[in-house]
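Key result, reporting period 2: structure in, sequence out.
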């Protein structure tokens, strides 16, 4: 475990070197810098920066707490946390953990989640297994390309040759992979004192049917599920909030028309709507976000309408209108802040619903398509190979359970706090 932590620290250190080299390229060769950028590079560098910021904030908080307040601030925070509802406290801790995974995924994952090679040795490996390998030398013109190749694209994994036994014969290395044998010149391999360097690749949760690291795939699938869920509830909030607050504030004919629209939308089964859209427009993460966003705004609209109607009858809202404050400012500054609690509870509950729906579609082959890992297709893979690789189904299912449990606990805790108010 200590070795894994040290490896992650080394990745962050190398990530800082990559950021430094990219910054230098931006200053002296801006066109070349633009050519170097792609989605993976941006994602990795942002993850490194956010990881460092998180660690610095935690460190500064602990130092300031211990040095300047003699633990009084820490004790006050501890007392506040203890006073919280148990469900909310547990849900909050798990939510922080999953958000941390969301932010730092490119740094945390130990292996390329899509990498597969030498399946005769790497497929269906049980948890806590390691495989020995030697690695080909790499030739890069500069340090920037070398770091990008190893950190961002993880192409160094493609240069590895796995084995269960080897034999050195003159200047050649005979690699044995069960029944198969390979001959490789020692000069082409990373070596030390004339001998090839033998390393080990460790699989904490084992591998799947293609020899891919299960831990890396689960961490990436958590990130994808959270991204889809968070973007979907954001769409639901904007559409539902706009329609709900407009309906509640304006009333009359506008209210009737908008509420009939809400009722019509509620009458459409969300799963059939999703399958219909996928059949016509294909599978993609962006389409799933739109589908789930359009499937949940009606609940937000109803709550926003009811709360705005209730608040409209309050005396302070009537006084604000008499003072000449516009409807837009009244809604933005007074109605929304006083009605956000039940909407927030609904959105968090909807987040868990979206994650379940996305996993169900992926399990059926209608969601995010392989090789992109999602909890649904990991569970489907585990189901297909349940007889000889039960750990795939076990870890995939447990991850989904904990993810849903997290937001359900958070919802129940917030609901109790809101009702007590």
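The corresponding designed sequence is given below.
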């Amino acid at each position: 475990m200590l070795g894994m932590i040290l490896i992650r620290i080394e990745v962050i250190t190398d990530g800082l070197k990559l950021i430094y080299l990219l910054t230098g390229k931006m200053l002296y060769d801006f066109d070349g810098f633009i050519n170097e950028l792609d989605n993976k590079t941006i994602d990795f560098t942002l993850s490194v920066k956010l990881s460092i910021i998180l660690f610095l904030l935690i460190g500064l908080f602990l130092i300031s707490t211990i040095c300047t307040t003699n633990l009084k601030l820490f004790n006050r925070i501890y007392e506040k946390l203890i006073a919280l509802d148990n469900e909310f406290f547990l849900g909050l801790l798990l939510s922080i953990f999953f958000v941390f995974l969301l932010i730092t995924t490119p740094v945390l994952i130990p292996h390329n989640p899509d990498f597969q090679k030498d399946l005769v040795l790497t497929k269906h490996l049980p948890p806590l297994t390691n495989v020995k390998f030697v690695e080909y030398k790499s030739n890069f013109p500069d340090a920037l390309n070398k770091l990008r190749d190893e950190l961002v694209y993880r192409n160094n994994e493609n240069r590895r040759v796995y084995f269960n036994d080897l034999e050195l014969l003159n200047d050649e290395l005979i690699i044995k992979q069960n029944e198969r044998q390979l001959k490789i010149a020692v000069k082409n391999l990373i070596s030390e004192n004339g001998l090839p360097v033998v390393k080990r690749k460790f699989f904490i949760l084992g591998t799947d049917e293609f020899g891919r690291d299960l831990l890396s795939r689960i961490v990436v699938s958590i990130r994808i599920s959270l991204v889809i869920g968070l973007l979907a509830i954001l769409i639901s909030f904007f559409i539902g909030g706009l329609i709900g607050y407009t309906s509640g504030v304006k009333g009359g004919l506008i209210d009737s028309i908008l509420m009939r629209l809400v009722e019509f939308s509620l009458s459409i089964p969300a799963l059939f709507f999703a399958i219909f859209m996928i059949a016509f427009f294909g599978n993609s993460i962006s389409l799933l976000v739109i589908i789930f966003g359009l499937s949940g705004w009606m609940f937000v609209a109803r709550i926003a309408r009811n709360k705005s109607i209730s608040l409209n009858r309050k005396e302070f809202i009537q006084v604000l209108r008499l003072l000449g404050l516009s409807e837009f400012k009244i809604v933005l500054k007074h109605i929304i802040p006083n009605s956000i609690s039940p909407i927030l509870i609904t959105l968090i509950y909807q987040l868990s619903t979206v994650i379940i729906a996305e996993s169900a579609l992926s399990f059926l082959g209608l969601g995010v398509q392989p090789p992109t890992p999602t909890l649904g297709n990991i569970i489907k893979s585990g189901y297909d190979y349940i007889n000889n690789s039960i750990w795939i189904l076990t870890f995939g299912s447990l991850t989904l359970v904990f993810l849903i449990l997290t937001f359900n606990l958070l919802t129940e805790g917030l609901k109790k706090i809101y009702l007590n108010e």
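The mean pLDDT is 85. The chain has three domains: 2-83, 129-203, 214-420. This case is discussed further under Risks and Mitigation.
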